[in-house]
Amino acid sequence: MAVDNDIDTVLDERGDTLEALFWGSVFLFTLAMFFWEFGLGAIEAGEGVLQPIGTITEFAQTMWLSGLIGGGGVVILIVYAVFRYSSGVHERPAPLTPGQGSFKFAVFLLAVLAVVSTTIFVGAGTLAQTDEASPADAAERLGVDREVEMGVVAGQWFWRFDVDGVPPTQGERVVLPADTIIQFKTTSADVIHSFAIKELGITKDAMPGQVNQAWFYVGEIEGETQLSFTTQNGQTQTVAADTYQVRCAELCGKGHSKMIATVYIINPDDYERWVEAQGGNPDNAFSTPDQGIQIGNATAPADGGHDEGGGQ
Amino acid sequence: MSGEPAHGSDHEGAEVHDHEEGHHGPSGWRYWLYTTDHKVIGIIYLWHALVAFALGGLLALVFRTELAINPDNVMLSLSGYNAAVSIHGLTMIFLVILPLQGAFFNYMIPLFIGADEMAWPRMNALGAWGISAALVLMYIPFITNLLGLTGLPDNAGWFAYPPLRSMLNTSGTDFAIMSIWVLGVASLTGGGINFFVTIINERKPELGWFDLPIWIWTVMFTNLLAIYSIPWLLDAWSMVWLERNLGMAFFNARMGGDPLLYQWIWWTFGHPEVYVLVLPGMGIAAEVISRFSERPLYGYKPLLAGLTFVSVASIGVWAHHMYATGLAASRYAFMVFSMVIALGFGIYIYSMIATMWKGRLHLTTPMLFSISVVIGLVYSGMDGFFFGQPATDLEFHSTYFVVGHFHFTIVTVGLFGLLAGLYYWFPLMTGRMYNTKLAKFHAFCTIFGMFGLFFMMAMLGDGTAPGADGTMMMRRYATYVYAPNLQLGHILATGFAFLAGIGQAAFFANLLWSLRSGPEIENPWEDLLSGQNMPSPEWNGFPYRPPTPTSVRDAAADGGPSGDDGDDAVAADGGAPDAPAGDTNGGDD
Question: Which residues on chain A are in Cβ contact (under 8 Å) with B399?
Fold first, then answer.
């Protein structure tokens, strides 16, 4: 009966070469996926003109690479063992004796410890340069002397941008200058949202009753798109711009996936004209980088922080 | 082999419980409802887990289909999508993996430690039926919503941050909270504490701490962590329930509460919970890999030290889930704790590879799933580094990269280990053998499909998916109209998901067929594993020693079945000159 044959296959101690090849290939497939993902991560170079993502990517690259070598190496050993030591291929298991291989084991532990501690130190340095650094520190490191402050209030389901020197806008678009430290403070009017510009390495939760702060910087623009606006005397101006998407990064209800806004980055000269066109004073478009507020220390007004982040 | 007579007294009752015992106990449904027999309760746990597994899996296929067919929502409403995702997560974590573990804990702990029963049999029954109530409460809102009586099921995600959750205007959320109340109380008192006390108090007197199987150790750590962490979960959700229903304010900023408070409480539960989910699977994989590689377990005591380290460290890393909330300097401390956990898991991975190396691997279904556990642990860890580090976390936080990472952890480590256990112990629990070809088909679809699916998720998240061009797929997005070019990645992911789904259909068919018509068998692994001097108490009874190099050598010296084992032992004595006095070696007890 067929059923008995099925039992025989379980009890079959011989196995066969084909089986080892087949299952080895299945595990090899997972390894190929791993190399695909981590390999692409490792070759993605950081762009210094975009911060903090440039600094983060430099660090992430070493992590992709060490993951590729360490994790990939370990799985190669497992896949090799399946190919080489399966019952269909390998006749007799080698004995394992007490204490065997303890030197190798100690070396392995030390290697893991070394990699982990290196990552801890490099990671701490990266954090200090990116999310922990105050706008003034960042400006000094990047050699920038201009800053624009922006308040971001998130709500179900909108973003409201209150950029220093221009009237607040609520909607899908905010315009900011290149080669300038953008310091933002974010809070929420209702539930928890999260202000994320993934292409720039920014994720900061917008929490009701709390103001969180961080900064980002776009060194120069490529002009991949254009921004048109009407000046006070009725002329239409068109300037080169780059765009970045703001996406909400914390589940906030029904409209979560459509809580998308676009950041237009334009050249500083164009930005002064933009500020003037909005009715602001171009001379006050930029301020000097300051220390910013201490992260997590400030509290928003009880009404959800309507005037937050706008003025000094 | 030395364990030959073990088919006698000790475990003879294993296969016959639902036939013979019916004569002197209640019959029919009363037999199941009134039982305090740990084996029957284990089967009850198992059925609940399988029903929930089918439900949670179908939900996943529904929203994976939605994601593949169109960047915008065409099948589900936006909130309906959120509900499907939330209930999928809650089901898989609380109603599939925990009950599946409970099934093996119930059935196997007494067999493994030589006890007659659990410490508190009646509490044990309470734990089992608590799952029933939890399952019903979790899924009632689907039915009442279809009938138009209530709003949608809970749709705030599985970790359900307030104030969103406090503001959801649906009784489905209250049902989900009540479901977890029942499950938490039942699994804590009837389950966790009971399992832990049983191992401490009911084990055979001659079983010392270092004579316990490595699997029993992982069970101990799991239940200790569950006892520590589940009260935090119940606290957090009770507070949300009080906010929703009695107008109290714990997390409402407008009334002086703090939304961040919830996250501190929740993740204090949430991180140890991850290790609750994976440790038993890792333990089963360790038992299976050793026996199906015909090699003693490499490094029993270092492995134990590694697992202890992982368990202790797991209660100090929770804030790495909260790097984006505005935490400042404390992130450095949590980063250090999160990173050093790699040491503990590194020991486990090393130990498994050293056990397999130069062994003789029998690629049976339990062994295939066990090897996948080790591979999955590697991928999960490599992805996990990016979330232990605050700097990279800010780049990948709340993308599909996180989703891929924790599916590697929970499915390919936690669930695959339990599936290995199911295939390893199914004949013991039912007295019948399953169809091995169908089982291998299940193994292929599951391993290939799940790994493919989770890699696609991770790649959608970090922007490396085909066609993504660096755009990251955000987590819990019902639509991705912001980047329609992600559709190719979603189609591939859904393809892998359906392959895995076909595998699970084969699994259920195999299970149901085998229960009725599988060939009767006592121990299908007997021929395969005999002659190794590595008996396992649930199959072979006692005396028992863990399968360490020392115990295998001693057993061979006592007159093992094959002469060549004796030769190996002689060679072994001179074979390890570099061993430093036996502090890091395995099983020098």
Answer: 198, 249
Q: Which of A99-103, A132-136, B108-112, B558-562 has the highest mean pLDDT?
A: B108-112
What pTM did the predictor assign?
Answer: 0.90
Same domain for A266 and A155: yes
Average pLDDT value for residue range B171-179? 94
Dihedral, CA atoms, B574, B575, B580, B586, nearest 10 degrees? -120
**Mean per-residue pLDDT for B477-497?**
96
Helix B300-314 and helix B214-246, axial crossing angle in degrees, nearest 10: 10
Determine, yes or no, domain membership for A310. no
A19 and A109 part of one domain: yes
Residue B552 C-beta-side C-alpha neighbours within 13 Å: 31
b/e for B49-87, b at 16 or more Cβ within 10 A? bbbbbbbbbebbbbbbebbbeebebeebebbbbbbbbbb
Domain hosting A56: range is 13-129
Average pLDDT on B112-119 reads 92
Which of B382, B451, B527 is closest, CB to CB, to A11?
A: B527
**ipTM above 0.95?**
no
> Number of A:B CB contacts under 8 A?
369
Residues of A in contact with B586 (CB under 8 A): 96, 98
Q: Which of B79, B390, B585 sits opposite A99 (nearest CB)?
A: B585
The reply to whether A269 falls in a domain is yes
pLDDT digits (tens, 9 = 90+) for B264-305: 999 999 999 999 999 999 999 999 999 999 999 999 999 999
- The answer to whether B136 contacts chain A (CB < 8 Å) is no
Are A155 and A273 members of one domain? yes
